[in-house]
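Hi F.,

I've been meaning to write this up properly since the lab meeting, where we talked about keeping a consistent format for the predictions we share between groups. The idea is simple: the sequence comes first, exactly as it goes in, then the structure tokens exactly as they come out, then a line or two of notes. No screenshots and no reformatting. I'm using this chain as the first example so we have something concrete to point to.
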Amino acid sequence: MLKYILLASVVFIHTLSHAQKEDKKLKALIESAISGFHGDVGVYVHHLKKNKSVAINADTIFPTASIVKVPLLAGVFQKIAKGDLKLSQEFVYNAKRAYGGSGLMQFYKDSARTDLSTMISLMLTYSDNVAAIWLQELAGGGATVNPLMDQLGLPHTKVNSRTAGREDIWKKYGWGQTTPKEMAQLFTLIRQGKVIDARYSDKMYRYLKNQFYNGRSLSQLPATVSTICKTGSIDDARGEVVLVNAPGGDFVFCILTKNNKDRSWTDNNEAEVLTRKLASIIWNHFEPRHHFTAFERID
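Output, unedited:
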């Protein structure tokens, strides 16, 4: 049954890609905004109802950084669908799993008990690295997640870290890799109930709605509008993928950068400023009747 669902997803993407019309006005606005950026930028935007899109370096491969946690989410749910894992399943934390970067699990006490649902929530809401690495193991690693991406019609979206045969690619792109178009399509597939099936996609969607890191694109959208989102950050690459349940119809966008000159870790990082600018442009273009000007940031 699963293979037929995945086949339907590939057909869905194929049909979707060939039916879209370019939104020339939005493209011009985005091209103007990204001109002069000190690094490489890729942008993909798709209004699902209007079926209009913008693609700028949208098929170029970029590092995912923590956005790889979305393919990991799909991999975990594939295991759940097969009966190999359960959301209520308990696990015992070992302090040897402690890993730097974002997240809370690194501060767990040794032998603390947790469950799969909590680990997924930590991975997505707080971008928890310890939880993500653990979930990558439980999902079967890149050896399982990467074929799933292929079956979903996302051949350039891959887990590189701890994946046999991808050591050299890992050196180039890090933990994972994707394109702006493919990551936006993965969000769209989840929205459409096409990843595993509608039931599992619905649950994935609910996990993706809760975001601690809401200072980029989400800060440029009305707080009353529902979204799913995932950010990713390393020194020379910042990215974000967002799907917005807007009044005029859902739209999705993915903004990825790499080879960035500005490697700072502040809110004024050039790539993060650009991301906020593009999110504002996209929202106000699609929702002129609900024009939104972001509030001054709170420290």
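Notes:
Residues 19 and 35 are 28 Å apart (CA to CA).
The two ends are 50 Å apart (CA to CA).

If this format works for you, I'll send the rest the same way.

G.
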